[in-house]
């Protein structure tokens, strides 16, 4: 006789208490699955509805405004890719400032650095009512055709009559070095200090061979009074202790020197800075006319 095994019958027969509990658990699981399916279906319906609404609103034209105010439409200029060019600074050349100068002379003042801007500033100073100190007629003199542009340039810088600037070799050498930056121990156009600059100017202008330092140059020269200064004399200053700076006197209380802040430039003995630091004036020993250096350009 064969006996068939039935698990359900065994559970129902031997464990009748657990049968309702199993049915309850199974029903709860089925309900959760149905709820999950319903929620997912609802989400799909909502998303499809929102997508349809978005497409329909995009197709509809925007309603026109019924306001009576006029619309002010500001046209935007297209942005240019190229950079804006800087405005050219106004320049006044020698012909506009001094009509009496000949054209042949005007061609020679082109290589001079910043001459037009210097002349423009001089004319502004002359025409200003607040500071009418500069006299262009006095500075440029009467016989304009007898002078070269470098004389006009330094006559303006020194605020002096152009006739007094007769040593052309001196001012031409100064102009070759003008604006060179300062460098301690330097002796080239890349950088030069005050005592080396005095060596170069003295040798190429007057034929003087000077010592290297400012202190040695002070000892090698003869002392003079300040009111006895003339073109080519030396002025010494105490800037860092003792005799530490030197320059060459030109005209009208002005001197040329290699400044640590401005390079080769023109200083003023009457300024507060230089007047407080002034030590004394010196002059090279007199030379005979036969050995003196020329003052005119060949």
UniProtKB/TrEMBL annotation:
- Domain NlpC/P60 residue range list: 164-285
Pfam families per the UniProt record, alphabetical? NLPC_P60
Family membership: Belongs to the peptidase C40 family.
Q: Which InterPro entries match?
A: Murein_DD/LD_carboxypeptidase, NLP_P60_dom, Papain-like_cys_pep_sf
Keywords from the UniProt entry: Hydrolase, Protease, Signal, Thiol protease
Q: Name one GO biological process term.
A: proteolysis
Where does this protein have compositionally biased stretches of type Basic residues? 72-88
Q: Which molecular function GO terms apply here?
A: cysteine-type peptidase activity
Q: What is this protein called?
A: NlpC/P60 domain-containing protein
Has UniProt tagged this entry with the keyword Ubl conjugation? no
The yes or no answer to whether the keyword rRNA-binding is present is no
Q: Name the source organism.
A: Phnomibacter ginsenosidimutans
Q: Where is this region: Disordered?
A: 56-90
């Amino acid at each position: 006789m064969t006996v068939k095994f039935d698990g359900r019958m065994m559970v129902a027969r031997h464990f009748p208490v657990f049968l309702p509990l199993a049915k309850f658990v199974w029903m709860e699981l089925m309900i959760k699955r149905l709820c999950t399916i319903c929620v997912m279906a609802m989400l799909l319906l909502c998303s499809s509805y929102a997508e349809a609404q978005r497409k329909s609103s995009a197709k509809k034209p925007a309603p026109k405004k019924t306001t009576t105010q006029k619309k002010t439409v500001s046209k935007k200029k297209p942005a240019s890719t190229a950079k804006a060019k800087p405005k050219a600074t106004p320049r006044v050349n020698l012909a506009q400032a001094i009509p009496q100068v000949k054209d042949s002379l005007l061609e020679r003042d082109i290589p001079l650095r910043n001459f037009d801007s210097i002349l423009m500033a001089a004319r502004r100073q002359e025409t200003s009512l607040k500071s009418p100190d500069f006299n262009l007629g006095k500075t440029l003199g009467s016989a304009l055709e007898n002078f070269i542009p470098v004389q006009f340039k330094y006559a303006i810088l020194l605020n002096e009559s152009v006739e007094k600037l007769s040593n052309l070799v001196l001012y031409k050498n100064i102009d070759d070095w003008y604006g060179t930056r300062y460098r301690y121990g330097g002796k080239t156009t890349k950088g030069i200090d005050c005592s080396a600059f005095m060596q170069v100017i003295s040798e190429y202008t007057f034929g003087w061979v000077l010592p290297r330092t400012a202190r040695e140059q002070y000892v090698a020269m003869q002392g003079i009074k300040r009111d006895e200064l003339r073109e080519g004399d030396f002025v010494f200053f105490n800037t860092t202790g003792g005799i530490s700076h030197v320059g060459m006197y030109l005209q009208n209380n002005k001197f040329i020197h290699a400044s640590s802040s401005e390079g080769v430039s023109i200083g003023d003995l009457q300024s507060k800075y230089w007047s407080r630091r002034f030590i004394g004036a010196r002059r090279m020993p007199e030379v005979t006319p036969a050995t003196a250096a020329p003052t005119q350009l060949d």
